[in-house]
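Q: Structure tokens for this one, please.
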Amino acid sequence: MGHHNEPKSEEDLLLAVADLFDEVTEEDIEEIDAALIEYGYDPEEVGRQMRMVAERALGDSPLNWRNQARQEIQRERERIESLTSQAINKTRAEILARASELLELAKAIHKKPALAHFRNFEEMTEQDLADLVEELEHLLSEQDQS
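A: Here is the predicted structure, written as tokens:
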């Protein structure tokens, strides 16, 4: 193996390793290890550090589906909490009016009656009505987002 210039920075090292990986075959792994040793690096330690960096980058990436799901769940929680707080301190008449309004809106959007249409609002408890209003608001806001 010929003489190699020592990398001047971690970026140079990373570029050298990336160049080695461009056309890596099984036989080339020994050559990569030899080059790392020649530069004064332990191939096992370099591999471990590269895995740690890649795992950390993946874990922190906003493009990671897990992070996107966490963010989406948090947004939905905040939205539901907002809807819940809006229903608190409303009278039964206000809740009934809002439920009817949302039901009409749902029918207009979906062109078919919502399941709530078949409920007798007068027989529902205030909590059940408030929950129904929250569910309808949630469903309609999802419709707005799509």
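A few notes: Residues 65-145 form one domain. The chain has two domains: 10-60, 65-145.
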